[in-house]
Specification:
homodimer, alpha/beta, Arc Repressor Mutant, subunit A, Dna Ligase, domain 1, 2 domains, two-stranded antiparallel sheet, 6 helices, DNA-binding
Chain lengths: ~160, ~160
DNA sequence: CAGTTATTGAGAACGATTTGAGATTGATGG
DNA sequence: CCATCAATCTCAAATCGTTCTCAATAACTG
């Protein structure tokens, strides 16, 4: 069982308090937007996403919040060193699970993929690289499930 | 079941960001023009088509964008043998390759992963979903390679 | 409550990249 | 040789992604 969004939210709150930072509506909206993302995103995309939650979030606040999220280890900076930043939620994925994302309703299923870590390591070392992480993401459509009411609009993660 | 234009658009955006290139209106117009094409086209035809989307697109920008689109594997260069180079959108699914991204230098290697499509399909149907696409992304570090000069700062795509 | 202080949004400022217009190159064919 | 035309180059101006400024606002404290 991986880290839940509730765990992350707690971690974020603790971090804010510990660093004497305030828990504002905008920061929480940005947090929620980060963990709604299924993959990497840019600051601009995060702004759009956060504004869907709280219309008052400004670009400046997104750019101010990202370093906090990175600092608290909840978000990973992907393109280190370059002037353009690239982020993704750092949910410390189980290296043996793949995610199946429904392209209709965005529901995420986590599925066992026992070969995943092995494949990442073997391919990396074949290239002379040090393995870091691997992510297997399957996209699939749920029309039928939606029709039957099993797959509702939502973002829960199933196992 | 091909790659959707949305997948391609995401891939293009990712490529631009990863390579520290900006996502300009003109580049996006050229992208859209490419994927509106039903068959092969010349740079000049692409210019006309892109201008229907964004009147400000210039010839120079089309010629500058084509190598980016080819490099990102979204467009294929077709050498007919005439003095004019032809291009076509590359919507061909490559469901059997994984990407290995170096976390140090952002170089991308494309590696065979023959099980990938099978896994996507089988997992999708196990959940009662219709498979759409699958992506396996391995992150690895190249410190040693960089030291040895094999892996230089750069963004080429290797196969 | 009221006081203190962090945080905010709007937009100006920033450096760097990308742009368009047109000049230039360099093949190709007449 | 010259004319044509695809492709590349040039450079000042425009735009991009990001940071900064500052007056107004909103969280915590007691």
């Amino acid at each position: 069982m991986g880290v839940t969004i509730e765990d992350c939210r707690e971690k974020f709150k603790s971090f804010l308090i510990k660093h004497n930072l305030r828990m504002t509506g905008q920061r929480m909206a940005i947090f929620e937007a980060v963990f709604k993302a299924t993959s990497h995103f840019t600051a601009e995309e995060l702004l759009d996403s956060a504004r869907e939650i709280d219309r008052t979030v400004s670009r400046a606040t997104v750019y101010r919040s990202l370093p906090i999220l990175v600092e608290s280890n909840l978000v990973r900076e992907v393109d280190i060193g370059s002037s353009t930043m690239y982020y993704m939620p750092n949910t410390e994925e189980d290296p043996h699970k793949a995610q199946v994302i429904c392209s209709d309703c965005q529901k995420i299923f986590e599925i066992s993929a026992p070969f995943l870590q092995w494949y990442g390591s073997s391919v990396s070392s074949k290239l002379g690289l040090t393995p870091v992480s691997q992510r297997l993401q399957v996209t699939a459509a749920c029309e039928e499930l939606k029709a039957s009411g099993v797959c509702t609009k939502g973002n829960e993660i199933f196992s």
